[in-house]
Backbone:
């Protein structure tokens, strides 16, 4: 059997690497991946690795296979197999001592994984590090392989590819900490071998986080530290030396490392050597990767010692100057390394917590002002440096989409740095620095021989990035900037930024003195933007929205001009290049202006804004049912989405309610003839949802007809949007006694038809949108009209239905179901939920054992680990509501899990968590503790499958299946 499997592996590898047919290679790859999960893979991989005739491809595949088997499938082996596996791996490590390196590395990782799995005593006295020390001394000829294993050991402690239990992983970390001195001694003994220097540095870097027992003063004088710091000036070993130095920095600030004073001997020697690299940053002959490594070291130093730097000593300022040197580099990958330092320095300078040790408020304020005075010039320099990094390149028009995306990323990053600077300098002072840049750039823009728009655009981009930080009382610079904007050339990218700048300063424009007459010329600029290109039109439309939101009262007397702009944009004629998506900004702009009008004027204005939207829909309806059914959805939704924006943003409930009543026949025609069309129905339901949200109970004259429409159409077409529209109706009208009859009928019909659709987990998976909106609606019913919902048979059937769908993988649908269940369990303990306690208890007590089993299955692998908090909350709610009963249900379920997956101690721990949850443990504590049990049950595929096979979350013979409606 083994010989046959070995031959098949060789054939598959030959096909994978050498067969000319893609389909054959794909099939071979699939077979090999499946083979790696088999029990035979252990013996075949081991045998081929020992086989002298195996080629490189076979060796690489088999070393990867053996490594992954040790990591994830170690529990497949019989208890006595450890020793033979250890012996085999040791032989292989010596065999591949001199290569191939890829194979040797995989063998080292496999040995490290084995060490994580087994107790320290299995390696003899002192564990694997002492064992390795003995082997290195006894067999120095295999030093290369032994040294790589020494490097890999601490790295693998954080590898979650290793399917070890959490307590075993913690014990392994503890064992390594206890052996750190032995490891450091081994590395020190290898220092004198030149060809091993890079490996020694790499090993030292790996082990530093375990060196808790070595004091800072000892490290400061340690020969390995001196070797690393001296290697910072070596091109050959620079990267390895930087890694060590970076780890040493982290050691000095790590939790439990002692006080800053205790760490100061090491900090001083590190800072001294790092500052000695400053000239290399500016050395044009230096390799870019080396410059990146040095820059990373400066950034690490700055971020780690920011609390010391923020005190503003002379030495601190030298470090800040060095970091400004890094920021001045032309490559984004290099200068952006400092951005996190500037953010942390900003936070330290402005937050009160940095100064609490100074005692009185007066002393705190004095120290804060002293530090800000010291660092403001540095932040001014920072603003000046980064503001020049956002200029459009001359060849931008040739950029690929990926390059353009990268350029936008640079701009976003610089914007964040500018905002950090404004927190230190204040928006007005930052604006002053940037206005100097703008003035210089405007001069070059007017250069007749070589006019350049890019510097002006860059300065404006930076100015608009800090707009929210500039005070609306600023009167020195912004009037000049606003007067300048209409005078700038209409180059596309520049005009786009000009429009964005206008929008960004909308609040300042509203507060500007009337005598400045700023608004009319700026509106003219926005008009130009809307007719230049789609990109400028998008920026202009958004700016128009902001202007109308913030300056709405200034527009109330000039509605004719606004309506003219609106009609041109909506109609698509007149030269505007506003897309249908961007036109929504203009719809919103006029809607917020209408909100400022008195009701009678608003009624007229609303009619005017709705006509260009409603008329095209009515024209389509008048062409007959056949045309309405066949027209592309886009021809309807473009208008309906505009109507949604109007209903959402005109805050005159009665006026909007009248408009909804007036236009209801049009909407009803679309409902009736397009109910099969998901896209159109989502659009029209969204429009109705915003109408309900804006109008509230003022919409009473239409709500009955709307609910009747929803009920009828949902029975025929099962569109999920009818459910989410109903959720909004329940939220607004749920507590209105006059609507009780309507809503009771709505709840009964919608839910009775939904539970017929969702009987099995396969049904839920096929219709996640229905599941999501159904349980969102059910939760709304519990919160807003429990009296109409909880005492009904439909409530009980929805709980049964939820049990079938808990393990749906769709994130939003799953969250809605889990939220519904926790709402059910929490209801009796709510302020007025006591009336439902007996009813809910009866339902849950009948289903508790099954429900608990499914929830425990969800926790232990049936749902992704990212759903842990939601699952934990349901279990917490169930525990608090049903105490001892829940503990019994949990015990039954946990006892189903086989001992290969959970030990007796782990079962007890699992039950204790549930018991503590019932006693009042916080969600955070429960989630953390459940997370550890969840990891145990998911530690590899074999264990996870064992747990799920035992708990059978999809086995619906163990759940209450919804009954057919009569």
Residues:
């Amino acid at each position: 059997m083994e010989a046959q499997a070995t031959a098949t592996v060789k054939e598959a590898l030959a096909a994978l690497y050498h067969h000319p047919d893609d389909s054959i290679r794909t099939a071979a790859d699939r077979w090999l991946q499946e083979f790696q999960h088999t029990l035979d893979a252990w013996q075949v991989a081991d045998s081929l690795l020992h086989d002298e005739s195996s080629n490189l491809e076979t060796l690489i595949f088999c070393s990867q296979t053996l490594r992954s088997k040790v990591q994830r499938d170690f529990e497949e082996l019989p208890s006595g197999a450890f020793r033979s596996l250890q012996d085999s791996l040791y032989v292989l490590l010596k065999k591949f001592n001199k290569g191939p390196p890829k194979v040797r590395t995989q063998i080292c990782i496999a040995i490290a994984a084995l060490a994580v799995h087994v107790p320290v005593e299995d390696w003899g006295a002192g564990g694997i590090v002492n064992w390795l020390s003995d082997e290195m001394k006894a067999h120095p000829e295999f030093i290369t392989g032994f040294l790589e294993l020494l490097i890999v050991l601490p790295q693998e402690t954080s590898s979650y590819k290793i399917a070890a239990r959490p307590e075993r992983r913690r014990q392994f970390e503890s064992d390594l900490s206890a052996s750190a001195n032995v490891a450091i001694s081994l590395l020190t003994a290898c220092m004198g071998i030149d060809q091993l220097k890079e490996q020694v540095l790499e090993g030292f870097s790996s082990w530093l986080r375990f060196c808790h027992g070595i004091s800072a003063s000892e490290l400061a004088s340690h020969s390995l530290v001196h070797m690393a710091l001296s290697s910072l000036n070596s091109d050959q070993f620079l990267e390895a030396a930087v890694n060590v130095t970076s780890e040493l920095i982290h050691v000095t600030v790590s939790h439990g490392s002692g006080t800053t004073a205790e760490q100061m001997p090491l900090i001083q020697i590190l800072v001294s050597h790092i500052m000695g690299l400053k000239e290399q940053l500016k050395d044009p002959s230096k390799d870019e990767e080396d410059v990146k490594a040095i820059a990373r070291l400066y950034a690490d130093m700055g971020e780690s010692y920011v609390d010391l730097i923020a005190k503003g000593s002379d030495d601190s300022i030298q470090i800040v100057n060095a970091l400004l040197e890094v920021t001045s580099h032309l490559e984004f990958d290099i200068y952006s390394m400092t951005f996190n330092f500037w953010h942390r320095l900003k936070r330290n300078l402005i937050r009160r917590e940095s100064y609490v040790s100074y005692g009185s408020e007066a002393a705190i304020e004095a120290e804060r002002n002293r530090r800000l005075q010291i660092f403001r010039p540095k932040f001014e320099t920072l603003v000046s440096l980064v503001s020049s990094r956002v200029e459009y390149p001359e060849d931008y028009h040739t950029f690929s989409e990926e390059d353009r995306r990268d350029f936008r990323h640079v701009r976003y990053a610089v914007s964040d740095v500018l905002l950090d600077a404004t927190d230190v300098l204040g928006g007005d002072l930052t604006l002053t620095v940037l206005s100097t840049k703008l003035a210089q750039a405007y001069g070059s823009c007017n250069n007749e021989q070589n006019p350049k728009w890019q510097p002006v655009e860059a300065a404006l981009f930076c100015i608009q990035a800090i707009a929210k930080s500039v005070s609306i009382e600023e009167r020195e610079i912004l009037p000049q900037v606003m007067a300048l904007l209409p005078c700038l050339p209409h180059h596309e990218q520049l005009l786009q930024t000009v429009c964005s700048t206008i929008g960004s300063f909308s609040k300042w424009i509203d507060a500007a003195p009337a005598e400045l007459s700023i608004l009319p010329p700026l509106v003219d600029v926005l008009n130009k933007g809307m007719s230049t290109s789609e990109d400028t039109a998008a920026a202009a439309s958004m700016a128009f929205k902001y202007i109308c939101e913030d300056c709405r009262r200034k527009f109330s007397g000039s509605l004719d001009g606004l309506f003219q702009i609106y009609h041109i944009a909506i109609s698509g004629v007149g030269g505007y290049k506003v897309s249908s998506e961007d036109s929504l900004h203009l719809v919103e702009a006029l809607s917020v202006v209408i909100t400022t009008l008195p009701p009678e004027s608003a009624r007229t204005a609303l009619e005017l804004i709705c006509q260009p939207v409603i008329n095209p829909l009515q024209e389509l309806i008048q062409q007959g049912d056949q045309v309405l059914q066949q027209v592309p959805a886009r021809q309807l939704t473009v208008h309906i989405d505009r109507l949604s924006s109007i209903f959402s943003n005109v805050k005159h409930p009665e006026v909007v309610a009248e408009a909804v009543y007036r236009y209801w026949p049009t909407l009803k025609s679309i409902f009736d003839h397009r109910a099969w069309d998901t896209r159109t129905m989502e659009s029209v339901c969204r429009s109705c949802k915003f109408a309900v949200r804006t109008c509230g109970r003022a919409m009473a004259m239409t709500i009955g007809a709307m609910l009747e429409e929803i009920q009828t159409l949902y029975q025929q077409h099962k569109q999920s949007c009818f459910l989410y529209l109903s959720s909004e109706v329940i939220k607004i009208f749920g507590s209105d006694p006059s609507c009780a009859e309507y809503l009771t009928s709505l709840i009964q019909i919608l839910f009775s038809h939904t539970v017929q659709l969702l009987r099995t987990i396969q049904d839920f998976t096929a219709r996640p949108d229905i599941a999501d909106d159904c349980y969102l609606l059910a939760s709304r019913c519990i919160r807003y009209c429990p009296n109409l919902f909880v005492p009904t048979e439909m409530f009980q059937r929805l709980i049964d239905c939820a049990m079938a769908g808990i393990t749906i993988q769709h994130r939003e649908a799953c969250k809605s179901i889990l939220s519904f269940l926790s709402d059910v369990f929490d209801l009796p303990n709510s302020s007025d939920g006591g009336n439902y306690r007996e009813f809910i208890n009866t339902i849950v007590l009948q289903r508790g054992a099954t429900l608990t089993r499914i929830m425990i299955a969800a926790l232990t692998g049936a749902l992704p680990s990212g759903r842990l908090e939601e699952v934990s909350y349901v279990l917490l709610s169930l525990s608090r509501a049903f105490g001892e009963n829940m503990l019994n249900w949990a015990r039954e379920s946990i006892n189903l899990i086989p001992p290969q997956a959970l030990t007796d101690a782990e079962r007890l721990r699992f039950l204790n968590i549930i018991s503590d949850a019932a006693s009042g443990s916080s969600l955070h504590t429960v989630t953390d503790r459940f997370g550890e049990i969840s990891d145990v049950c998911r530690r590899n595929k074999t264990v996870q499958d064992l747990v799920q096979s035992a708990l059978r979350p999809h086995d619906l013979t163990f759940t209450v299946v919804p009954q057919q409606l009569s």
Notes: Residues 828 and 835 are 7 Å apart (CA to CA). The chain is about 75% helix and 0% strand. Residues 868-896 form the longest helix (29 residues).
